């Protein structure tokens, strides 16, 4: 029996033990209802087989699911014949934290069926060492704590729900600033206090990006100590692990160890093997996580359905050059002696550093610029670095060293250039995707095809993650069954995040609902033409209100800030 066959047998057993869906009747809940969705294939989020049925909504809750009498009174009825009715999708890994203040409509998410965004990877909306201000409804709102951020983003008017981790970058950097020094005991207690306050504000847990230069000095013991604070609040440890390259197995082992020692659930962010030297070894990662789960460690992961990832061109620069912040980095990029040292480290690597340059074999063609560049370089947007470097060199003879051109490019762009790296394989990604403990997260943001959020040359996952799974990997390739794919997008993520009243179609749950055409659903965004909405989703309901109607946004912004435990 294959791994996948054994998992399917397990799903069948679980399905046989799960109670049948509630059926509305005149004696149970006769209405009236605000909205009834009739005649669709109900995929309820549990992983159970679909069934034909109706769904009724009253206020912001699901009132009934099953066979609803034809004469039941309803303000509006939607005919879902031939369609699938599912819970709203929960994006387990999103970066919409700041863009929602620019445009809260969240159109790229609604067109994907996403009704809840989970934010805060490593850096979150609070706590902030230096408070920020947002203008909302003509008033200036001060944001310092995570609670301030959650209040402000909901007040600004958002089309989808948001929930957030507290980022290690906020907790550690809030105390240590740009210093790479070890914290004193007093400083560490200050970090614990910041984390405790953010958890009390409703954070889902602690999120890390351990490949960040400053985080390289954060030890496993440090993470365990911080996660013990998270455990007291019943939260989750979400980790962009220390390395997705040569040390990926050790990095996953560290995430497991943190969860096991601190007594917290673990979610590994966009699990992958992003170094060609280790391609084909995903089965070893699967075995590592399966073994941890077998001994009682609650470790899961998420994945996005693409073989390219988004980072920054500055990630090629070794960690020591980042200490002191952006101004210090720029000074080193301009210094000949520092340049010489950086070149050696980039080409040879450093112990414990995930080197993006070596991970892609030093192949500039596997780095596509996704940022909005300055006017001087605007014509280079959306091009790969093998095309950009000769353009930057011009007619100079002899041609400058490629890394000197890289340093000059970063200097001219202020030290940061968003970049898409082609660094992992379809086979490894597919093996991760089918694991029962692996859910879906986009690693994208709420963008738009027009207005202020049409910017740069973004990764297509911002527009296509969830329809891509349902269209390509469910319908076209049969890698996943429909019900299992929906579970990975809904109840699995809601349960991990502690959002207990979302992710399932059952009476009493919050009415976040998606109606989609299983024959048409597909992503349309590509690496060359990213600004394209997905197709095949006709209706999206957020907190009981129709946000996408007949495939078009209604303008209703019914989203809320969700806080763990509330």
From TrEMBL:
<dbReference type="GO" id="GO:0005829">
    <property type="term" value="C:cytosol"/>
</dbReference>
<dbReference type="Pfam" id="PF07969">
    <property type="entry name" value="Amidohydro_3"/>
</dbReference>
<keyword id="KW-0732">Signal</keyword>
<dbReference type="InterPro" id="IPR011059">
    <property type="entry name" value="Metal-dep_hydrolase_composite"/>
</dbReference>
<feature type="domain" description="Amidohydrolase 3">
    <location>
        <begin position="76"/>
        <end position="272"/>
    </location>
</feature>
<keyword id="KW-0378">Hydrolase</keyword>
<dbReference type="GO" id="GO:0016812">
    <property type="term" value="F:hydrolase activity, acting on carbon-nitrogen (but not peptide) bonds, in cyclic amides"/>
</dbReference>
<feature type="signal peptide">
    <location>
        <begin position="1"/>
        <end position="24"/>
    </location>
</feature>
<dbReference type="GO" id="GO:0047420">
    <property type="term" value="F:N-acyl-D-amino-acid deacylase activity"/>
</dbReference>
<dbReference type="InterPro" id="IPR013108">
    <property type="entry name" value="Amidohydro_3"/>
</dbReference>
<protein>
    <submittedName>
        <fullName>D-aminoacylase</fullName>
        <ecNumber>3.5.1.81</ecNumber>
    </submittedName>
</protein>
<dbReference type="InterPro" id="IPR032466">
    <property type="entry name" value="Metal_Hydrolase"/>
</dbReference>
<dbReference type="InterPro" id="IPR050378">
    <property type="entry name" value="Metallo-dep_Hydrolases_sf"/>
</dbReference>
<feature type="domain" description="Amidohydrolase 3">
    <location>
        <begin position="459"/>
        <end position="546"/>
    </location>
</feature>
């Amino acid at each position: 029996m294959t791994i996948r066959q054994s998992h399917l047998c397990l799903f069948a057993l679980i399905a046989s033990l799960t109670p049948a869906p509630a059926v509305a009747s005149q004696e149970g809940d006769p209405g009236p209802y605000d909205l009834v969705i009739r005649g669709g294939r109900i995929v309820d989020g549990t992983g159970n087989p679909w069934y034909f049925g109706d769904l009724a909504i009253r206020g912001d809750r699901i009132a009934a699911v099953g066979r609803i009498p034809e004469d039941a009174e309803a303000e509006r009825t939607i005919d879902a014949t031939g369609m699938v009715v599912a819970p709203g999708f929960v994006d387990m890994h999103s970066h919409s934290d700041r863009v929602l203040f620019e445009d809260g409509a969240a159109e790229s998410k609604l067109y994907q069926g996403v009704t809840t965004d989970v934010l805060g990877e490593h850096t979150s909306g609070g706590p902030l060492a230096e408070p920020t201000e947002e203008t909302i409804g003509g008033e200036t709102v001060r944001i310092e704590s995570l609670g301030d951020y959650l209040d402000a983003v909901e007040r600004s008017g958002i089309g989808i729900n948001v929930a957030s981790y507290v980022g290690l970058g906020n907790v550690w950097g809030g105390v240590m600033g740009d210093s790479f020094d070890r914290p004193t005991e007093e400083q560490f207690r200050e970090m614990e206090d910041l984390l405790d306050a953010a958890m009390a504000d409703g954070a889902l847990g602690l999120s890390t990006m351990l490949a960040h230069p400053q985080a390289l000095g954060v030890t496993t013991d440090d993470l365990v100590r911080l996660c013990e604070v998270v455990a007291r609040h019943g939260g989750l440890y979400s980790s962009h692990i220390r390395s997705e390259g040569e040390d990926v197995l050790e990095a996953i082992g560290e995430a497991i160890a943190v969860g096991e020692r601190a007594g917290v659930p673990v979610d590994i962010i966009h699990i992958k093997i992003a170094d060609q030297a280790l391609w084909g070894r995903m089965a070893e990662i699967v075995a590592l996580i399966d073994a941890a789960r077998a001994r009682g460690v609650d470790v899961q992961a998420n994945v996005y359905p693409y073989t390219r990832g988004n980072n920054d061109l500055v990630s090629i620069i070794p960690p020591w050059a980042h200490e002191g912040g952006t101004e210090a980095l720029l000074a080193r990029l301009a210094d000949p002696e520092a340049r010489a040292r950086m070149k050696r480290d980039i080409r040879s690597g450093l112990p414990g550093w995930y080197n993006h340059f070596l991970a892609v074999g030093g192949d500039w063609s596997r780095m596509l610029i996704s940022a909005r560049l300055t006017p001087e370089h605007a014509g280079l947007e959306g091009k790969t670095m093998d095309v950009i470097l000769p353009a930057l060199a011009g007619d100079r003879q002899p041609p400058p060293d490629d890394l000197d051109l890289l340093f000059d490019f970063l200097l001219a762009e202020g030290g940061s250039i968003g970049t898409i790296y082609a660094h992992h394989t379809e086979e490894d990604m597919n093996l991760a995707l089918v694991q029962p403990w692996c859910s879906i997260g986009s690693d994208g943001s709420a963008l738009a095809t027009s207005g202020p959020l049409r910017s740069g040359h973004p990764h297509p996952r911002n527009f296509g993650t969830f329809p891509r799974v349902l269209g390509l990997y469910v319908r076209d390739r049969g890698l996943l069954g429909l019900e299992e794919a929906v579970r990975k997008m809904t109840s699995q993520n809601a349960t991990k995040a502690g959002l207990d009243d979302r992710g399932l179609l059952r009476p009493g749950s919050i009415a976040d609902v998606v109606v989609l055409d299983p024959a048409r659903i597909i992503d349309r965004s590509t690496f060359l033409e990213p600004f394209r909405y997905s197709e095949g989703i006709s209706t999206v309901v957020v907190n009981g209100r129709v946000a996408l109607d007949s495939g078009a946004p209604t303008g209703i912004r019914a989203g809320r800030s969700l806080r763990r435990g509330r």
